[in-house]
Every structure is written in C-alpha cells, then in structure tokens.
Known about the structure:
Blueprint: H1 13-19, H2 21-24, E1 36-45, E2 58-66, E3 69-75, E4 91-95, E5 102-109, E6 121-129, H3 130-136, E7 138-144, E8 150-162, E9 168-176, E10 189-196, E11 202-207, E12 222-225, H4 226-230, E13 238-244, E14 252-259, H5 261-264, E15 273-276, H6 280-285, E16 294-303, H7 308-313, E17 317-325, H8 349-361, E18 369-375, E19 377-379, E20 384-386, E21 389-390, E22 399-401, H9 402-413, E23 418-419, H10 426-440, E24 447-455, H11 462-472, E25 477-483, E26 515-519, H12 528-536, H13 539-549
Amino acid sequence: xxxxxxxxxxxxxxxxxxxxxxxxxxxxxxxxxxxxxxxxxxxxxxxxxxxxxxxxxxxxxxxxxxxxxxxxxxxxxxxxxxxxxxxxxxxxxxxxxxxxxxxxxxxxxxxxxxxxxxxxxxxxxxxxxxxxxxxxxxxxxxxxxxxxxxxxxxxxxxxxxxxxxxxxxxxxxxxxxxxxxxxxxxxxxxxxxxxxxxxxxxxxxxxxxxxxxxxxxxxxxxxxxxxxxxxxxxxxxxxxxxxxxxxxxxxxxxxxxxxxxxxxxxxxxxxxxxxxxxxxxxxxxxxxxxxxxxxxxxxxxxxxxxxxxxxxxxxxxxxxxxxxxxxxxxxxxxxxxxxxxxxxxxxxxxxxxxxxxxxxxxxxxxxxxxxxxxxxxxxxxxxxxxxxxxxxxxxxxxxxxxxxxxxxxxxxxxxxxxxxxxxxxxxxxxxxxxxxxxxxxxxxxxxxxxxxxxxxxxxxxxxxxxxxxxxxxxxxxxxxxxxxxxxxxxxxxxxxxxxxxxxxxxxxxxxxxxxxxxxxxxxxxxxxxxxxxxxxxxxxxxxxxxxxxxxxxxxxxxxxxxxxxxxx
Length: 568
C-alpha cells in the first residue's frame, strides 16, 4: 500500500505521506500471522469470606495491554458462595510470538443482587505475559491486593494450545427423573463435564446453568471446542456429574456417568443418546437401586470453524461507512481551537482517525467507494437538523471515491453547515443496519459492514442507540466509535455493558459484541497504525463469529468470480 491521502488544503502530498506512512504500512493488520490460538482456564484458591454471614461471589476479569492502555478482553462467570472457584469459562487468545502480550487478571467479589463491576469489591490482581503462561503450561501467582501487598489468594492459569482441529461442538443436554435432594422443593440440578487428562487429572470442560426446582431439567445448548472437550481424541473418557445446587455453595451430589465424544456423536443425526446417572454409594447400599435419573444428549453438532482470511479470500468485501459528528460542541470550524479546524499543515483529530482506520479498511473493498454521513448539523437548503445526511450532499449517492474522496467531501461541506445538535447516533446505525439486513437474505459471505463513528461527546440518545446496537448484533456489521477531543467519555463505556453485556432498554442482550469504543486522546502521540490496530483488532473475530454462528461457509477462492475489478 504505497498511496498517501492528502488531508490539508495546501500541503504537499509528501508531508502527508510521512504522517501516514505507519498507517499505510501497518503490517497487514488483518492478516498479521497469529502463531497459534491458546485457551486459558482459571482456578482460584483461598478467597476469604466477606463477613461472617456470606461467602464471596468471585468473578475474574481479563485485561490485555494495548499501546499502554489496559483493555478488557473477557470475564468469567460469577460463582456464588465460593472461596475456591474453578471457572467453566474459557478465554481464547491469539498468541503472537513476536509480541509481549501483557495480561492482568482482576478478581472481584460481585454484589449478589447485581452482576456488574460498579458495586463489586476489587480484591486484587495478577499480572503476567501470555508467553510466561504458555512456557509454563500452568502458572500460579499470588494475588496483589489494592495497595500493593501480596495476599494469600492464589490464581492458577492453565494454557492449552489449539492445534490442528479447531472445530467446535454444540451440545444440548436434558435429564429426567433425577433424585430429589431438597426437603421443601425439588432439586436444582446442574451438569459438569470433566475431561480425563493423560496424567489422570480431571479438567473442567463445561458447567451448565442451574435449572431451579426441576427433576426433569432441559439445559441450554452450549458450544465447546473439540480440543477443549477431548483434545481431539474421540475415545477419551469424559466424567459427567450432576449436582443439586445450594445457595451456600455446598452442592449435593446426585450422580455421575462416563462418556466419550465417540458416544456423543450418536446424537448428530437427531437421535438421542442416554446415560444412567449413578450414585456409587446408593448402588452399594440400596438393593433395588437402578439409577438416580437419566441424562439425555438431544443434539450434537460439529461446527467447522473458518478463519477471517478464508472469508476474505472467498470474496467477502468489507463495506466501510464513515459518520462524522457536526454538533456545535466541536467549536466554530473557522476558529483554530475547533476540533473541525482545517489547519494548512496539520490534519485535525477527525481526519487523523478517519485516515488511520480507513486506510486499512479500503484494502478489503474492491470498488473503494465509501458512503460518508454527518450528524448533528443544520444542512442546506432549509437548514433543518439532520442526523444522517450525506457529507457530499448527494442523498441518492453518498459514496466518495476512496478515503481521499471522503476527506475532500468533509472539507468541502464544513463551510456550508451550521453546527448544531444534539448528538444522536441511533439514526446512522439504523441506516447502515438497513443495508446490512439486505445482505442477510443472500445467505452468503459477500459483504460485511463496518461503521466508523467519529464523535466529540457523549451521545444523547443512549436508549435508542442501545436498541439499535442490539438489533444490529444480528446482522453482518460492526460499529467502531472513536471519541475525539477531551470530553468525559466514561458514559460511553456503557456500550460495552456494565456486566459485560450490552442490553437494550427492554433488557434484550446483544447477540454478539459488535461495538468498540476508543478515545482518540489515548493515541494522540502514537502512530496512526497504533490507533488502527486498537480499533480494528476485534473485527476479524467479529466477522468470523457472525458467519460461523449463521453456518455460512466462505466461498472457495476458485468459486468466487468478482463482477468488479479490484482497485489499485
């Protein structure tokens, strides 16, 4: 990628090519060679009780350092009333040999009535690198408490490389006639699946949710990697245990059974596979004991996982759309203090962010035509406020030729607008979602939409925006929001959801995580490539997650015949 984009009114392209050289040569962000994928599993020992009356409800949040900033990657489930938790949640990370990938595991005691971190007690953290975990396979470290003292809590992180077979398995379990362990109600059963390792130790693979007051539970369908379930060995023994959940953490044992993935595969064609759930003590003590219930596998699906490059090489195009904030809080563009001020030699933050991200995306779009919209301004001819107007003022064709075309349209429109407000972004999300919804009907991996929103302030239509994002999470699209200027963007973190899951005002959760928010000031003195890498790092996984969840396979490159020639 040798082109440069000129974003100033009077500067030679050579100056700009220096400024954007690092964006233009960003080491092929989407295709940087991930050495391997790694699964991390966590256990904790020795968490002290909150007080005499209650045990802790621990949760671990994984953060990764990116350009000096700690960013949340994922978090475990909350395990109620437990001082020595073993987490079912598996963290899957890309391992890059050539990078130092710094990780921080933060331990929280969650308020029992609220799953978020706002009211949680921060108990401390452990820091290490991914390389350290991988080289040791199992790393145990003492928790560093707030204030810097070393505590008694030990966090153990186990790493397993995903080699060769990265297929996933979808399993649906139920049970019938389980033993009743409660006096005043029926049992509250949950199922745990353990893998028997080569060294005869047991590794927790998955723990289902608890189904309350039910001896015939139907557990939610879940997905695990084949590697995680049985290390790719279809004959490996799996120990499956059914428990009756108790709020004090002392769960009652109902029974267990042994299985293999080879047996589970019997449910692939819709047939049920059944195992008697046995309590060995009852078997010895009770004369006519048959079992403590029957556990049923209703469905087993093998899901072939494809990579981002599989989809791109199969002809999937990244459709890149830009939305720019033209609200009055940006300041008068004629004033040098304005965030929209066009400096003769130095691009403003809007242009820097636009070019850094756009330069990457345009390589994955064959026609290099990008729709560009504005919001929050009064526009000619009647100067009514609009939240989704074409920056080139051509509503029938808002597309600009290349990132250079977006830059020129932006500069040309500024003198014609009246900056106004409020900061509403739901309309532009819905506009791109309408285009993405057309793609859904094709049932092919041909177009994935990325909306880049550049804004200087906290959005005013948060409820509508949350609703729009939840609906968009069902579509082939991702939303990147870059906060420009020095406003307090803390409310924007809400778009990631306080409990890790963004919900609509009605409580509907996002189907998948599609929003990335980054304040530009964190990258003010970094290269454009650093900003691009931070905001786009999640996109390949989001593309893959969407198409894999829909069961849409990439086209084989030989099948794909583009009707449009690739641009320069």
